[in-house]
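Deliverable D4.2, example record:
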Amino acid sequence: MNINKLILIGASTGGPGQIHKIIRSLREDFDGAMVIAQHMEHTYISSFMDYLHNNAPLDVVQAKDGLTIENKKIYLLSQSTEIKTQLSSLYFLQNNGEFNYNPNIDLLLNSAMEISKKIHVMCIILTGIGNDGACGALNLYNSNAICIAEDEKSSIVYGMPKAAIELNPKMKQASIDEICEAINRF
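Output generated by the structure prediction step:
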């Protein structure tokens, strides 16, 4: 594989602030790729990406159909997207299916199940309403990925992390500060 570590983050209501905390906490020597699925209208993605880019030690780019995933980059999804493998590279494939949430976190996480058998994958479910990401996190957990749900105390809305924990009680819960530390140790 062209990368050795992949961090997948899913968030909804309250997510932009938590994602900002994570991005700001990254060390410059972070060696891996990060993909963020934040439920957000497509029209707001570019301004959110600029906001993150101005506060990140790494490049923040919008994931585009066919774009190869590289180390030391943070990718922000603007629509429901899967990760695919071709030869020894990972790339994005946008999915035009009908989903309740955009971008769809479960779609992203489920697409990384095979990848998690070849490289180190960490899945993080942050604050948000609903249950998007719960099934995908369970599937990744069962594929030996590291999976963390934000705890109730630091979540703005405890819906998505709670759904993930209810589906998989063995999944680790952590505060946003502990999540930042776990990413930097990963």
